[in-house]
Design a protein that fits this description.
- This protein is an alpha/beta fold.
- Helices cover 34% and strands 15% of the residues.
- The protein has 12 helices and 11 strands.
- It has an 11-stranded mixed beta sheet with strand order 7-8-9-6-5-4-3-2-1-10-11, covered by helices on one side.
- α3 links the parallel β3 and β4.
- α1 runs parallel beside α2 and α2 packs parallel to α3.
- It is globular and about 60 Å long.
Length: 376
Amino acid sequence: MSHEPKQMSLKVMDNRYSPGMRKWNLRFGITSRCNIRCQYCLPEGKQGVIVQPSLKEAIEVLQAGYDIGFRRVHYTGGEPTVRRDFVDLLRAGKEIGYDQQIVTTNGYRLHHFIEEAVDAGLTRAIISIDTLDEQRNLLITRRGFHSDTLRSIERSVELLPTLTKISCVTMRDTLHELPAFIDYARGLNNSGGAGQLAIKLNQFFPSNPAQLGAEGEAFWKDQFAEEPAILEALARAGELRPVRRESIEGDNPSYNYYEIGDTGVKVAVLAMFSWDYPCGGCWKLRISPNGMTTICISQKNPPILWGMTLDEKRETFKRLTGYRDSEQFDIDNPNRKHYRDQLGELRFDKVVGEQKTIAHFRTILTREALEARGEM
């Protein structure tokens, strides 16, 4: 008996089929605040200064993007749903004309207002969950909200006629759970909901403020898994059959997608650290919570949007996207990488702590490998 999901029933929401600037996506960090403290992300304790645009400023961003041809916006944070005006922002985006409004969330709050969010224009959700074990989730996140995240995932699949994705940070202690994740997705995909569920596995690469401290660095060192270990654990759920990336809805070109055995479940693997952070060739205009506006993660001296007039925002977007579309961009940036020097800067803005480069973390693994072979 085949368990292939009913893909034809899904509403395809992809820029290849949208009017306007089809390849471009607006990725909008609407707050630096987060309501949890995952061990691999933010250190425990007070986060410090919270930065975010006013609702008026955020709506101007949407208007400026729409005016130059954007039709898709992806809201991130911090945690975007902690904004009390999040649904108001969705509604404004819908009224402006966006046909795709996506959110990446930890799922803590989404299920409480998802029906209102869908009515206001939410078209897709990406929900973070690293383990299906409640106690392990408490250990990783330092917060007791596991059932909320599961409820948000299930309600998203039930209500959204698109591809909901769960986003997992793969850690050494959770690799054995990958078959259980496949079973979970398979069950939801056959539950009769409006949509389907796919899984994204993100290698635990050092990119967050937590790794600036000794405790966070030690946690990364203990939990980091190389790509072969991730694929081996995933293969325990079934044969990995490669899937063409362009056939899967989503704006990150770097993922490698697989279908798992006869389950019909699609799983993506992103191993940025193992791959040495290559540029994936994306077309995203990224706006951080403090208004830092980039067309490339490694871009130097990006403009700060906040305080600009609507016309100035529009002209800034035209200038940046025009430059990215030009041949000059590739000439000027031949060796670009998918990271910034300061960990956590794009999501949480200026992060207080020691400056650590990616090379620092690679040295740790190199030293361990040499020690294991008795060469040190």
